[in-house]
Amino acid sequence: MTTKQKQAYNKEYRLKNIETLREYHKKYRREHPQYLDKHNQRTRKDWQKLKQLIFSHYFNGNIKCQKCGIKDIRLLQLHHYEGGGAKQRREQLGNPNAGGSTFYYWLKKNNFPKIKLEPVCANCHILIRYDTPTIKKYENNENRKRGK
Ligand SMILES: [Zn+2]
Q: How does pLDDT run across 52-69, given as a tens digit for each residue?
């Protein structure tokens, strides 16, 4: 069996047995809380590494909120400064609400496509969204229509 065949087999197995596996992992995590901590630490570390990579690539040394100047990368998010973030997520990720790591992994996987992004902190990001006129959101198809 080649690696590709193995991957296909594993994927099919996971899909077929998703409920059983879910139960198994749930039980395992409950019975081994010590591994959960380790797992969370690793996940957090991977996430920080990915975020650093994305921000370094797109903002090359200018990693700070473009509104208030805060430099703590844990607080920074990617902002589509010409709008259309939800539209892009819907078209390319299949879900307008797929933000965070899904979008970051997508950027990496697609070799850092040229997208108009800027770093802003979570608070400024909320204010930007709050201040964006609804009409503009509709023009950009950013109104949240779940399941459409
Ligand atoms: Zn800010």
A: 999 999 998 889 999 999
Ligand 1: centre distance to CA 76 (Å) = 8
* Residue 114 falls inside a structural domain: yes
Report the run of H or E that residue 95 belongs to, with start and end: none
Domain assignment present for residue 36? The answer is: yes
Q: What is the CA radius of gyration of the chain?
A: 19
| Overall domain count for the chain | 1
Ligand 1 centre from 47 Cα, in Å?
21
Residue 16: inside a domain: no
What is the value of pTM for the model shown?
Answer: 0.67
Whole-number pLDDT of residue 148: 41
CA geometry: angle 72, 108, 101, nearest 5 deg: 55
